[in-house]
Design brief:
It contains eight helices and 13 strands. By secondary structure, the protein is an alpha/beta fold.
Length: about 240
């Protein structure tokens, strides 16, 4: 396991999980030059050991194809353990399907190899900035929708919605990750838990109920949009 030189005390901490030594070293050096504190490992199991009991990382850069535990499984483990650290996934496979699968599992961004270090740094900055902004807010806001997590309250314009716990958690998840496409299976896992026994149509029913309360015209939704063949997206 390689670690960069000591950085300023308050520097953001990034974990790099990449099995290609050249890429791992280049990424670590580039991040270090930008003032980030970096820790780098070469396989998914080592990454999981660092992450499962450690919430001090501000970002994880995660290769898709890894020995022992691959990137998709590692990302899935993170989200199942309610670790919402931002994940930037790297892969030599750049098809739309690969990107969608990575994002569905819980990655926040996807970068195809080969990539430029300037683009990597820009993506890292954006993800960390977005996480910091979300963490500092007492509410989630999108156009006229205002969601207050600590109060379990949603207000649209000047109207307060009466949402069930599942509807509230669905909307909170969507608003926390605008534009991300969620499959029914991902939503079941996130909201109902992986021990849920039932049909994925449960998700469709709750989305319909949520649309009826949230949308001006539920038959032509503005906020909760169906992405055919994949699932649902907010915004």
């Amino acid at each position: 396991m390689a670690k960069s030189k000591v950085k300023p005390r308050m520097a953001e901490k990034i974990l790099v999980v990449e099995d290609e030594a050249l890429i791992r070293d280049m990424v670590t050096v580039a991040l270090g030059d930008e003032g980030y504190e970096t820790v780098a490992v070469a396989d998914g199991r080592s990454g999981w050991e660092l992450l499962k009991d450690n919430s001090t990382f501000d970002l994880v850069i995660l290769d898709l194809m890894l020995p022992q535990i691959n990137g998709l499984d590692l990302c899935r483990l993170l989200r199942q353990s309610n670790n919402m650290v931002p994940v930037l996934m790297l892969s030599a496979r750049g098809t739309e399907t690969d990107r969608v699968v990575g994002l569905e599992i819980g990655a926040d961004d996807y970068l195809t190899k080969p990539f430029g270090m300037r683009e990597l740094i820009a993506r890292c900055r954006a993800l960390i900035r977005r996480q910091n902004q979300q963490g500092s807010r007492n509410s989630l806001n999108y156009e006229e929708i205002n969601l207050y997590p600590e109060e379990c309250r949603v207000v649209v314009g000047d109207k307060e919605l009466n949402l069930s716990p599942k509807e509230f958690r669905l909307l909170e998840l969507f608003m926390s990750h605008p534009k991300r496409v969620w499959s029914r299976e991902s939503l079941l896992e996130k909201i109902w838990g992986h021990d849920f026994v039932g049909d994925s149509k449960t998700v469709d029913v709750h989305i319909r109920w949520l649309r009826e309360k949230l949308e001006v015209d539920p038959s032509h939704p503005k906020y909760l949009v169906t992405i055919r063949g994949f699932g649902y997206r907010f915004g």
